Amino acid sequence: MSVRNMYAALTAITVMAVAVVGCTNSGGAGATATTVREEPDITIAAVPSADLAGLYIAQDDGFFAREGLHVKIVKIASSKAIVADQLAGKIDLCAGAYMPYISAEAAGKKFAILAEGSVMTPGTRALLVPKGSSLSSIGRLAGQTVGMNATNSIGTLLVEAALEEAGVNPKSVHFKTDAAGFPTMAKELSEGTWDAAFFGEPYLTQGEEEYGENTLVDLDQGALTGLPISGYIVTGSWLKEHPGTAAAFAKAIEAAELAADTDPNEARAAMAESDHLPSTVTALMSIPEFPTGPVDETRIEREALDMLDFGFLPQRDSAEIRNGSLVKAMIPGN
Q1: Which structural domain, as residue segments, surrounds residue 160?
Q2: What are the two backbone dihedrals, phi and then psi, of residue 228, each rounded to the nearest 5 degrees?
């Protein structure tokens, strides 16, 4: 589909997005045209991963520019690391995992999901072991060390769920965080820093192709198969002040994710350029699903329920999570 046709198809969606975002009550009463302060220059903190290919397509292919947005992308190791900066007004928007924001919302903070980023598919999240490792199954990870891009994160949830399903107590595994995140982890794993490590694409394929590492377990399985992974998230106060900017951003991302879903090679090319990876990696990497259209409340609620069930949210929040009100408060227009 051509860029022109994509934009024509999205005109009606954008009109609705402006109306919805403009009247949202996330983080407070709906803002009006006379009280908002719009800002075309926005800074986005992003976790390097194939889940955010839509972000890089929007930047590289001019979708942001067409909406009058000037976007600066700052790469971070994990979305958990940037929550405090968003609350302090240092970062406008985060492109990363939902999990720390659901936790923050449960703790009384106010965040809004402007658009979905990705849904896990086979091969997009896995545990790797070094070349020549004696580890042959996840059931043998008790007492071993696993490298993570962040602890108490979406990766931790996925790994702990897989361990439990394999009959391994997650507390018997030592999780170690790499402050630099995915980009350096394949090299460190090959050097024996950990016994295994958690990866997302394209760094999963990088580990296999450049360092001969092997997949111990694909994490798109069991209870967490097809889990929503990432989205585009702002504070409730930022959304209240910038409804027009938020709507423009949502339109640009919608077009970019449609492009990624229509032609996966666009996603591969965007990651190759963004992360300076060779075609031997990006041509082989697995691609997640890139949702388009309104944020799917039911899909995000599923992640909150999984967080509760696996102990990543306190039971005191159980009623709010199980009745859907916690996630509902994070979706503009509710």
Answers
A1: 125-224
A2: -65, 135
What would the pLDDT profile of 165-196 be if each residue is shown by its tens digit? Answer: 999 999 999 999 998 889 999 999 999 999 99
The reply to whether 219 falls in a domain is yes
**Which two tokens mark 92?**
């406008």
Q: Which of 181, 205, 224 is the last residue of a domain?
A: 224
Q: Is the dihedral of CA 162, 164, 170, 172 positive or negative?
A: negative
In a domain, 334, yes or no: no
Q: Looking at the structure, do residues 91 and 180 belong to the same domain, yes or no?
A: no
Residue 299 within any structural domain of the chain: yes
My answer on whether 233 and 96 are in the same domain is yes
What CATH number does the domain containing 101 carry? 3.40.190.10
Tens of pLDDT along 74-112? Answer: 988 888 888 999 999 999 999 999 999 999 999 999 999
Provide the sign of the torsion angle of the four alpha carbons 176, 182, 188, 189, taken in this order. Answer: positive
Distance in angstroms (rounded) separating the CA atoms of residues 94 and 292? 18
Question: Could you give the angle at the alpha carbon of 71 between the alpha carbons of 67 and 75, nearest 5°?
Answer: 145
What is the DSSP code (8-state) at residue 195? S
- Residue 247 exposed, middle or buried by CB count within 10 Å (0-12, 13-18, 19+): buried
Contact between residue 284 and residue 298 where contact means Cβ atoms under 8 Å apart: no
CA atoms within 13 A on the CB side of 168: 19
User: Do residues 203 and 185 touch, judged by C-beta distance below 8 A?
Assistant: yes
- Number of separate helices (H) and strands (E) present in the chain: 15, 10
Nearest-angstrom CA–CA distance, 178 and 62? 33
Tally of domains within the chain: 2
Helix 53-60 vs helix 264-275: crossing angle, to nearest 10:
80
What does pTM read for this prediction? Answer: 0.85
Let me know whether 199 and 220 are in one domain.
Answer: yes
